[in-house]
Amino acid sequence: MEKREFHILLVDDDPKYADIIKHQLRAFQNKVFSVLWVSNPAEVLPLLKSDKVIDLILMDYFLPGTTGIEIIKDIYNEKIRIPIILLTSNRDFRIAIEAMKYGVEDYILKEDAANTMLPRSIINIIERVELAKQVEKAEKDEMISRKRVEAIQELIVTMCHEFNNPLAAIKISTDILMRQKLTERQKQILERLNQDINLLEKQIVKLRDYNAGK
């Protein structure tokens, strides 16, 4: 069975650290990681808006002329929903709290990221996000199906109501005509009409009962 390939975007201006992360991910035996490294923060948004497949972003906090948080805000404001792990050497967890406001999935110290925990963290986050999307889609599909059923039920109620009134009027008119002096042929026609009306009424009752869950 072919292993799934995880496409990772690494945003970090330190080439040595980028090499460490690449090596760490490629050395992981259970999964295949494809790492795209970007050192210029200005390249991030255009890349994410392209058709490039990205499963997760590893975002450094300290970047040239800006911070990872600012780039994350831009990503969030563009409504690009790709899971992000924020990497930083800063132990100020207020940064983590700020990052979480903009959809960051995890906050990892850079020294911890350069070990065996990173690949597993990436896999767990991607799988968790994908599962959440599947659940959301299932709930949305269920809601759409429920709305369709409700629309059909409302249509049935309307149809039953619209058929009942004319049928009742036709039946009354038929009963009145049956009391008149008629030829044998006319009687046969009215009797057949009455039978058809009764059959149609029964079908409407069945449809109404089915719609009511009886």
Which terms summarize this structure?
214 residues, alpha/beta, Rossmann fold, Helix Hairpins, 2 domains, 5-stranded parallel β-sheet, two-stranded antiparallel sheet, 7 helices, 15% strand
What does this structure look like?
This protein has 214 residues and is of the alpha/beta class. The chain has two domains: 5-115, Rossmann fold; 141-211, Helix Hairpins (Orthogonal Bundle), CATH 1.10.287. It contains seven helices and seven strands, in the order βαβαβββαβαβααα. Strands 2-1-3-6-7 form a five-stranded parallel β-sheet, sandwiched between helices. It has a two-stranded antiparallel ribbon with strand order 4-5. The longest helix is centred in the C-terminal third of the chain and has 62 residues, at 117-178. It is rod-shaped and about 105 Å long.
Give a nutshell description of this structure.
The protein is α/β, with parallel strands linked by helices and 214 residues long. It has 2 domains: 111 residues, Rossmann fold, CATH 3.40.50.2300; 71 residues, Helix Hairpins (Orthogonal Bundle). It is 61% helix and 15% strand.
Q: How many H/I helical runs?
A: 7
**Distance between termini?**
50 Å
Q: Order of strands across the biggest sheet?
A: 2-1-3-6-7
CATH architecture field of the largest domain = 3-Layer(aba) Sandwich
CATH fold category name of the largest domain? Rossmann fold
- Percent in strands: 5-15%
Query: What's the quaternary structure here?
Result: single chain
